[in-house]
Amino acid sequence: MAPRTLQPLAPRTEDDPRWASVLARDPAADGRFVYAVRTTGIYCRPSSVSRLPRPENVVFFDNAEQAEAAGYRPSKRASGDQTQLMEHYTVLVQQACRRIAEAEQPLSLNELAAHAGMSPWHFHRVFKAVTGVTPKTWANGHRADKVRTRLADRCSITEAMYDAGFNSNSRFYAATDQLLGMTPSDYRNGGGKDAIHFAIGECSLGSILVAQSVRGICAILLGDDPERLLIDLQDQFHAATLIGDDPDFARVVAQVVGFVEAPGLGLDLPLDLRGTAFQQRVWQALKDIPPGATASYADIAKRIGAPTSFRAVAQACGANHLAVAIPCHRVVRSDGALSGYRWGVERKRRLLERETQATSGNSLGLEKT
Question: Which among 151, 123, 149, 117 has a CA at the least distance from the CA of 136?
Fold first, then answer.
């Protein structure tokens, strides 16, 4: 009975252009689809050198996630090839990033996916897995970099608008709050209309300065000298209006201090992140490192699709003004040793030890106190 049931499926498989890629074991088709074998319950990449199945036993899926959702498991060879597959994905994503950067107008998700030979859904997942952000977020970050660069060159706002790929004033000004955190003219003038509330206190790591703009927490600075922290804030927001001694801000400061003392609890406050597209990608990757875990600068570079940019990753960590909220203390050298930290290696050590102890306690079922 089974052969008669499956026999009509053979022509369907043989007529599918993907079957030709399987027969040719075409590596160029890897990442575009996988094929599963009904009789074994496993799925493989098109280039797999495993014994070819009978066509009536084959079913195609767009990606491994769909195959696993249908109940299939990866072949041993497919499991061993995951590193090679990620390298292939990384190349495709790097090519997509170049297309975004070189395009005169924003590219749609469908256009980017078609260039990569993937479905839009699969491309979106792969892009985020490689870079840590969605294609739209990456594109917005790149456009923000273009706008910042052109405004810093003292070009006109209209020139900056068109150079960044905006074809109308309304779209440009609607996007600048997200891209720059302020209007283009304010950005070019150093953020002169920004009102920054701040307060300086003490925590177990020494002095702490917390600052907040209308968009969220924009600085969490640690150190031994409160005056030095204030100078750092003034340097960062040199043209903003700094407002201290605000009683209503005390609750926010207490919440941030509580988070610094116990990062695993999370910080339920909006953040005002101001950085280049590359820095934003690095910072997002840092936020994805869970408490108690670490990653090397090279690891982060690979995660954001820039495997050779580990030095630039270190520079992005050094440019971080949001201690603990953007956990650059969780980045270590490739050999596991602690390296430089904006607020001192000893603070980095204490933060990591505290998180490791908290994680170990929770894994043993201990209650938080």
Answer: 123
Residue tagged 């479905």 (tokens): 119
Taking the C-alpha atoms of residue 218 and residue 236, their distance in angstroms, rounded to an integer, is 10
Closest CA to 138 of 297, 188, 150, 129: 129
202: helix, strand or coil: strand
Cα separation, 58 vs 38, in Å, equals: 6
Residue whose structure tokens are 């009904």? 38
CB half-sphere exposure, 17, CA atoms < 13 A? 2
Cite the active site residues.
44, 328
Length of the chain: 369
Give the full edge-to-edge strand order of the sheet including 241-243.
216-223, 206-213, 195-203, 241-243
Give Dmax (Cα) for the chain: 84
Each of the 369 residues of the chain gets a pLDDT tens digit; together they read 344 444 566 788 888 989 998 998 887 787 788 999 999 999 988 888 778 889 999 999 988 878 888 888 887 665 555 556 667 777 888 888 888 877 777 788 999 989 888 888 888 888 887 776 788 877 777 776 666 665 555 555 555 554 555 554 545 545 555 555 555 555 555 555 678 899 998 999 999 999 998 888 999 999 999 999 999 998 888 778 888 877 888 888 888 998 888 887 778 888 888 777 788 888 988 988 888 899 999 899 888 877 778 888 888 898 899 999 999 999 988 888 887 788 899 999 999 998 888 776 554 343 433
Give the amino acid at 361: G
| Token couple for 29 | 């088709």
Which residue do the tokens 């875990």 mark? Answer: 293
